[in-house]
Amino acid sequence: MGGRLWRGVPLLVLALLWEGLTRGGLLPPEVLPPLDRVLERWAAFWWGGDLLPHLVTSLWREATGFSLSVAVGVPLGIGMAWVPRLRRACEPLLALSYPVPKQALIPVFMLWLGIGHASKIAVIFVGCLIPVVISSLNGARGVDPYLLWSATNLGTPRHRLLWRVIVPAALPDILGGIRMALSISFILLVTSEILAARAGLGYLCFFLGESGAYEEMFAVVLTVVLLGFGADRLYVQGMRRLLVWHLEEGR
Amino acid sequence: MRRLWRGLSPAATVYGLLLAWEGVCRAGLVTPFLLPAPSAIAWRLGQQLLAGDLAWHLALSLYRTLVSFALALLIAVPLGLAMGRVRGVRWFCEPLLAVGFPAPKIVFVQVFMLWFGLHELPKIAMATLEGIFPILSATYLGALGVDRSLLWSARNLGTGEVRLLWKVVLPAALPQVLNGAQIALPICFIVVFVTEMLLGGGGLGDAMMLAQRFADSRGVFAGIVTVSLLGYGTMRVVAWTRRLLLHWHVETQVRQL
Amino acid sequence: MAVKIEARGLYKVYPRDKGEAVPALAGLDLQVYENEFLAIVGPSGCGKSTLLYLMAGFLDATAGELLLDGRPIRGPQRDCGIVFQHFALFPWKTVKGNILYGLEERKVPRAERERLARHYIAQMKLTGFENSYPHQLSGGMKQRVAIARTLALDPAVLLMDEPFGALDAQTRRLMQEELLALWERKKKTVVFVTHDVREAVYLADRVAVMTARPGRIKAIVDTRLSAAARRHELLESEELVAKANAVWALVREEVEKSAALGE
Ligand SMILES: Nc1ncnc2c1ncn2[C@@H]1O[C@H](COP(=O)(O)OP(=O)(O)OP(=O)(O)O)[C@@H](O)[C@H]1O
Ligand SMILES: [Mg+2]
Description:
A: mainly alpha, MetI-like fold, B: mainly alpha, binds adenosine-5'-triphosphate, binds magnesium ion
């Protein structure tokens, strides 16, 4: 616990530096508003209820797109490893879509689905799907064949191998891919909301910047950073618990 | 025959899909506004190529990418080496790395716009910031893992601490540094593209958003094809460079022995 | 004596994507009698593991016949338990979880499962490590888990691929005695692969010596020791040494051949 506090000190130093530079007049408030003002505005924003609806909107888009991609991607990846025909059919598509920067799809989805929830969810879904599928595929294909033999010898019929051996053995890879997808999902969320939206944290940040409310804007920037970081931390905690048996831990 | 089918099938899936797409468009099942035919997109790409405006946007985007990549390397490699070898630097930077890596840094585009305006600087700053993290974390881990006996023997020979970083730690950590760089370059390219989408000012991203604003879906799709090809190209180039550099790395090591 | 497993002209060729295919077994003939303890020795890479995998039904023979109880082996065999050379424990299961796995798959009632697991944990000297994961165990302990897991199912045929290879000398000795006691009590057919000629002679009724790759049976030596010699606390009984020397002379020729092949 002391170690964790100690690790927080550099962030505190940075915060003090921010406060000192702005209070000391080295940086004018139009460039960087003082941290205490930002925090004050942030609190007012939060209690005033202006932040919450945008936060909820963003989280809804994020959670839907992300969970859909996991729900589709994991079975698809494992299925591709299990059924050669499926793999042959899907692999070229995967190879083709892999190098497409997913942010470039935002305008297309806007074209198709407008600027509401649907286009954001779709972009997040597509962007997260690929790392999830690839990691599930690699994980399931990389299962030590001796483990499969060993399970067979201990009495597991073929159709149960999937659940009893392949899924647990591939779990570290799958969870790693999902973690990557999680960070991608936030990037896509914010980008698509800045680009075109009428609600959401990205939109809010853009709007506040345009209207010159810099203190509030910094408050939203901090919120987004914390959200991305917090989600990752939370995920890693859960992942550690699921993978106690695994040697290398996620950072 | 069966083998022929197997060898063909990956390409067959792709061609089949393209044909189906073309067919659907030709048959008028979707409006060309929602989904232009592949042939129309190819035609547009050809036009853009001939007109020369594609070359201009491309050059702009590549220029920004390379500048920000170089800056990211210049900042992240020394810092990563220092983090790996100097206690204080590690103590200060590690939490920042831990918070910054998973955070969606693209949101800083608003901040950079405030600081640097709309032109080159905010784009380059944004791409540099995003490029720094993978290089920093890889270099740091590489420097941390350098064999102690290597350091001891070099120090024993009278190498100073700063020279040690360049002469011993960097070469030893080179494979990891290159791993980080390999991840960072495509990221820099994509971030440049995205900031161009957000801020305008020329480049492939701007061109694509312009097409979108004018409801020119062929232009949008042509843009996607261009960035994808380019993204793929950068990945290949980096992988190739890495192999070349590592080859040289191994060779020089062998020669020294 | 009834023949339990019979190989007739068994061939196994491993295909390779690039380069030549590897012939692992080439025309192997062997009879394993019911309830006998047969050891297989031979130079490294001669196809011993391959032979066991064929017997367990994981691999298909390229040519030749392999029969279990007179019926050709096709697909995994339910009553052939195998102990893998490299353990193949499930890394996501604890020691106890690994031992319980096969019992669960066979729908053994819960109370019985627990009892068996406890019994084999104690017998394999794993008490105190029930809840450890494989990566927290030493090589020898992993090996004992792998043995316990297979023994718990009480298969009619035990295929063991260097099951004591990772054990220290003392534990190894104890395990050998345990295995012999178990075999005498339960009467199973055991096919036991080992590198250790002395171990083979000490444990087995017969020792099959394989040739260098591609593997064939070079000779089968009857090594049944007199009861007195087997009970002998020291491994140095004259009878054992003499038989071990005879087997070693055979193996040595093949090891030299295989070294000449650069393997
Ligand atoms: N999956 C495989 N693909 C190709 N070749 C293989 C494969 N498995 C084994 N071989 C080859 O077949 C030969 C026999 O292998 P096997 O594992 O049966 O030998 P072994 O007698 O058990 O050796 P050891 O005593 O070292 O365990 C070896 O030359 C090996 O290289
Ligand atoms: Mg073997």
